[in-house]
Structure formats: C-alpha cells, structure tokens
Target: RNA helicase
Amino acid sequence: MAKKKELEVKQQLEDNEVTELEEEEVEAGEAQQGEAPVRRASTFAELGICGELVSACDAMGWKEPTGIQAEAIPHALQGRDLIGLGQTGSGKTGAFALPIIQALLKHDKPQPLFACVLSPTRELAIQIGQQFEALGSAISLRCSVLVGGVDRVQQAVSLAKRPHIVVGTPGRLLDHLTDTKGFSLNKLKYLKAIDDILNVIPKERRTYLFSATMTNKVSKLQRACLRNPVKVEVASKYSTVDTLRQEFYFVPADYKVKFYPFYLVFIEFKWFDLIKLAAYTTEGSTLRKSCEALSLIDCYLVHVLNELPGSMIMIFVRTCESTRLLALTLRNLRFKAISISGQMSQDKRLGALNRFKTKDCNILICTDVASRGLDIQGVNVVINYDIPINSKDYVHRVGRTARAGNTGYAVSLVNQYEAMWFKMIEKLLEKDIPDRKVDNAEMMILRERISDAKRIALTTMKESSGHKKKRRKTDDDDDDEEERNAPVSRKSKYRKSGRR
Model:
C-alpha cells in the first residue's frame, strides 16, 4: 500500500512539472513569424468583431474585452492556431467563441457542423453551449451539446438537425463520431479520446487550446492538435487573481491519534472503512470514538461556516463518498448543503447545480468535477476541505470565486499529512499563504455535537448502501468517462481511499 501511494505521489509530482522545451518551441514559432505585436484594443469593435456580435456582447453585459480576449481575438481572426493561458474567470470562453461565430458569419449560408468544442466535464460543456447560444441568438445559431448521462437517441436527433456548433465531452462525442457497435468507454482516457477524435475530423482546420494552467497534458495536446500556434498568456504560468484573499488553518492531528490511534491510517487515506466498521460492530461506543477521531477538521469547517453566514460557498473534497458524507453531516447541523460528484446521474448533478445557483442551498460540496471552468455567479468563498495532491487543481478550485474582477475568499484546512502538498501549492503560486490562528479550546466546544452529526450521517450512508446493493442486480447506470475515472471503485461502492 505504501509503495502504491509513493508511485501515485510521484506521478502527481511529474504532472506538476511543465515541459519548458515545449513552451520554448511555441515561442520560437511566434518569433519566426516576425509579426508585430497586436495593439491592445479597448472595445470589441476595435478588435474587429462585427456589429451583430458587438450587440450580443452588450446584451450579455460584456462592455469591454478582457485581457485574454484583447490578446487572442486578433490572432484568431487572422486564422492562426492559438494557445490561450489565462487566470480563471478571465473570459477565455469569449476569447474563442467570438472568433468562431464571426468566421461562421463570413459564409453566405452558415455552414453546419462548423466547429467542435471539447470540454473535460459535462457541466462545463453545458455552460459553453449556453454561451454560444447567447452570443448567437440574434443570428439563429444552432448549438448541440453532447455529454454522458443524457439519452444518446435525443443527442442523435439533435445532430441530425445539423447544428452549427457541437460542444461535448470527448468520450460521448467520439461515440457519436465513430458510431461503432459495441464501442466501450470503460477503457477510454481523456488524451486517447482526443487522439481518436483527431483521426476523424478534417486535417485542415483551425485549433484553439485554452486553459488556466500549462500542464504536461496541455503540452501533449498542443503537440497533437496545433500547427505553429500563437501563444497568448495574460498571467504568469500559475497565478490567482489579486482580488482573491487566501488563508489556511492548520488542523492538529494529535487529537485523531488520542481518540482512536488504531485507525490513523484509515483516517488519512482509507477513512471510509468506517462504514464497514459500522456494519460489523455492535458497540455504538466504538463508532462514536471513530467519529470523534474524525471530527476535528469538521470543527474547523463549521467554525469557518459560522463566520460566513449567507455566503455562497463551494467546498472541495477528494472523493465522491466524501461529498455525500459531508453534505449529510452539515445538513444534520442545520446548514443548507448539497453535494455533486461524478458518481451522480446527469439529472441529479444538474439539479444540484440549479439548487445552488438559485440559492435554495448556499453550500455546494463537490469533487474536482466542478473545479474546471464552471462560472457560477455569486460564489464568494471556496473551502479546500481536502488539499489537492496536484497543485494545479488548487488554481482551478479557487478560481470558482473572485471572477470577472469581483472579490473572493479561499481557505484551506491543512493537517500535518497534507503540509507537503500545501507547500507545493505555495511554491507553484510563488507566494506564502498566511496561516489563520484559532483557539483549539473553541473547537472542542463544537466537537461532541459534530461527532454525533457525523455518526448519524455514516449510519444513514450504511443503510443506503444496503438498499443500493439490492437494486444493483437489476439496474444499470449510464456513466461517461468522468465517472469511470472518479476515485470510486466499480467493485465496491465505498472504495478504501481518501480520508476522513
């Protein structure tokens, strides 16, 4: 187990490294062109955007182009391939959507299936589709969104209407492109899906690649997809906006050892074994001690939530099971919390998002499925309940707040086992994140009530898992690549991974 964990951390460390040679190749490509730098425009009209789209931008409240839009759009209108790197919430969607729609308008008769947009997650794909429809509403733009969890027949009907723009996740899009009987997404990985899609679409094309971070995977996509691209970068490689206030709480781990030392390993990496413990133990006191051992970090979380009444809050955890357990625990404590993860059906995920967007619930507990590109208005707090192993995931997580010039607050709950990962985040950002002090005696006042709430949540999940096992014999779930890559084993509903 230790060897496996070591390999996992080593892989994450490798992913945290950016291939400088590839970046130099891109910059060299730009230098060879010898083109003069494009003057920074202050309006969309000055960028060369046509009148119909300028009006659409005004209707959406886009009064002037953002930094990445001002830098990227002129190159895109010249027909160049692009790599766009910008901070979260910097307007990257508009930077590629506007040139695509304008290129479509150049045809006397708008061409069907003119552009394909790939997104790593379903929710982001749906959001991008909505942006295209809003920008193209005045010109009757048709956009089809292809994601997992939605009936394939309905999507095939939508494609048969020959939309101008297709937005989708790689696995489901490839499923429609190949239309191969018996095609399985079980073994499909994101980069392999992109590879297969590239073999199907035309060789002569324009390609835009946009991201908040430049990772090895992005570099591989660059080599596979783009030809002599222009690199547009409006921020440092990995940075957060100046309007974001960042802090962390250090959660002492000695309380966990004192209450239940035998389960220390499980607390940090396999906490969900407590579900099995609850199933096999007949002594309520044993489960109670286990919950007390796990509840200190929840005390810190509740302390933060109590200080931010009425705020729109996103809480990030590492595993799908953690989202539900934490949501149940917080609801037992009278907080309006709801969860979202790759393990949920598409309808439930969209339902949870809508409840959060309409402020029916003001706390959304999620995995990194929700960290990529989602733009939810009003989110002013992000809490890292679990510290991400991959430092770049931190940038994406905290980017859900402080968007479009607004202020935001990001707080992380760090224990001694995660301190190394948090130091890597500070190194990546090239800044020290301040530590916020709190009186541990104050935390102890909350502990008994929170441990009871968590014990009830664990019992509820144990009972729920029993019912699901009975239904699993007759029910089949429709999953896509996100769910298969989620940190939950298909063999066991509650995989022994994650912590708490």
Confidence is low (pLDDT under 50) at residues 13-38, 180-189, 254-287, 474-500. The chain is about 45% helix and 10% strand. The domain at 17-233 is CATH 3.40.50.300 (Rossmann fold). The longest helix spans residues 440-471.
